[in-house]
Amino acid sequence: MDLGSQVLFLLSAFGGLNALILSVYFGIIAHKKKFSNWFLSLLLLVISVRILKSAFYYIIPNLADSIIQIGLTACSLIGPFLYLYIRSQIKNNISTYIWILNILPYLAVLLIVGWEYPYWSYKELWSKTLVPLIYLQWIIYIVLAVYLLKDVFRRLYSRKDSLNDREKWFLNIVAGIFIIWFAYVLGSYVSYIVGALSFSFVFYLLILLWVFKNKHNSLFFENKSSYEDKAIDEEQLEQITKKLKVVEEKKLYQNSDLKLADLAQEINISTHILSQYLNDNLGKSFSLYINEFRIEEAKRLLHSKHNYTIEAIGYESGFNTKSTFFSAFKKITGLTPSGYKNKV
Q1: Domains of the chain, first to last
Q2: CA 281, CA 286: separation in Å to the nearest integer?
Q3: Which of 51, 58, 142, 250 has the lowest CB atom count within 10 Å?
Q4: Global pTM exceeds 0.90
């Protein structure tokens, strides 16, 4: 094996090995766990198995067929674990039924197929049918993960609202998994090692983002952990609750450029305390808190302003784009503005 091949192997193998170590960290060692850490751990685990298999197959063409089958089986779980990680983060929790529905069927089918039609005896079946199906399932789950983040992508596209660090992290994770999928598909036509190399590149890039941003509390641990030693006392809670009535009294929510810092300044408290109050006591982000007021205003206008267009009502309520108005209205009420108007 020449020097170039050795370098490619080492880069790929180190990426896979480090992902395996990080998988163990999130799954076993990390304290103050969030449930979603398990999905992140399992996502890293199945990717590392796939990458290590690819790296060793690159330098050992006659690698044991059983190891190749294990790598391909692990590959079939990358998409589901990505989807479950994003979903558990976005919705803060996930039912047992959901994760079982998205894991056990694929695992059961591949175990049964692998037993009845092992790779070492049915290589053509695997290469021409099962592997393309696995890659198809992988990209379908990437699309489902993108759909979960549709509001984030919409804001990113409109460039009206800035994304927080957690949202940027989710976009990086999905983009990284897509790059790896694309590299593996491309590798079928170019070189087998391309997929493994792409993972190492994406993996180390994401780790650098994590380390330099130093936002591990909000990305991987419970959101409340950063506040747990600085609880707001009962008297201050009561004062903040009273002060926040100004949002409705002055209709501050109608200002489409209203930011957390603006509201904190209005009621004379720090942005940190206000954010803590909204997250810990109301269980809401600042965006959701304000949008609920805007939606109530929109509902009132839909009742009373029959000569207003739907778009005008959105702007009057405090939304800066038609798309964000429609998205927030559907998310909070379960109906579109037009559907709500017709219903009432």
Answers
A1: 3-223 (1.20.1070.10), 227-343 (1.10.10.60)
A2: 12
A3: 250
A4: no
